[in-house]
């Protein structure tokens, strides 16, 4: 029996990636929708075979508790709404899959974790990269030290964000600019690959003066993470330049490049090493799978088999704490120390 999902928010991500992604799922199915736009919702419901009585508004959202077909609520709303809808969803007795960034503050992240714990429900953050096969291959190469010890990582995630008066440019709704939206991929993927937590961050921020897109949220953030083993990650994110969604891992005897590494589709790995003194470059391929399908099926499996998700709420909280340190470092113009944390690997 597939696990039934309710999708909350019918914006770009839900319509263009998540709902089509269910076609590639083996364990999950869409059974309910929540939206503030009844006309759009009834069209989408017809398209995906969702019953009219399983369509809810934000006001009737809590009634999901009386719908046994819904086991997981997938929250795909502006960032500032993640905490409220997670807490209400957990109170309605449902497991929660929440889009990234988890929330706009560590305080909200803690409330979300507590609410799900109290309700005895699972909380997973939708870190799709960690369910994607090529990125998982990089993980294996790094963790198995295939090319020796990793010394350095560089990661970049940029896009020229269109100014269309959307929530991403408003601080109260988005929490920040490029950093929580796309810079988070550099941070989260680096932590995922290394299995270590940074102990120090230093950062600088720049926003083009007079550009209305950056009146409330930042444009560019460059940040460096220092890890206990000595590894340094140089990361950069921005809302004002053409798409770049790539990272490269440098190890003693080789490097692994993912370009693009953070896109939805068409990811490409190049790895180089010199086993007999001559450089060999390889480009392994895997079937292009919907990362959203893989991620949703993981959540479904956790529900059916009563397992902790691979990217639980604690992952989102840790990223939020590091992002807060990144902002502090840029504000104070000095490195910021982070508390030593090692527990996150216990989830892996
Ligand atoms: P979007 O603007 O396209 O959709 C947001 C939806 O929320 C819309 O349907 C809108 O009507 C609804 N909404 C409800 N209340 C709102 C309010 N007060 N203000 C604005 N919109 C409101 O956004 P999106 O790109 O679909 O992003 C939604 C979430 O998904 C965000 O948290 C974002 O970070 C995340 N996201 C994740 C990925 C990924 O790759 N995992 C990609 C894109 C977006």
UniProtKB/TrEMBL annotation:
GO molecular function: nucleotide binding; oxidoreductase activity
Protein name: Gfo/Idh/MocA family oxidoreductase
Keywords, sorted A to Z: Oxidoreductase
Organism name: Hymenobacter persicinus
Gfo/Idh/MocA-like oxidoreductase N-terminal domain location: 4-127
Segment of the intact protein contained: 90 to 437 of 445
Family listed: Belongs to the Gfo/Idh/MocA family.
Residues covered by the GFO/IDH/MocA-like oxidoreductase domain: 136-256
The keyword Oxidoreductase is assigned to this record: yes
Domain of life of the native organism: Bacteria
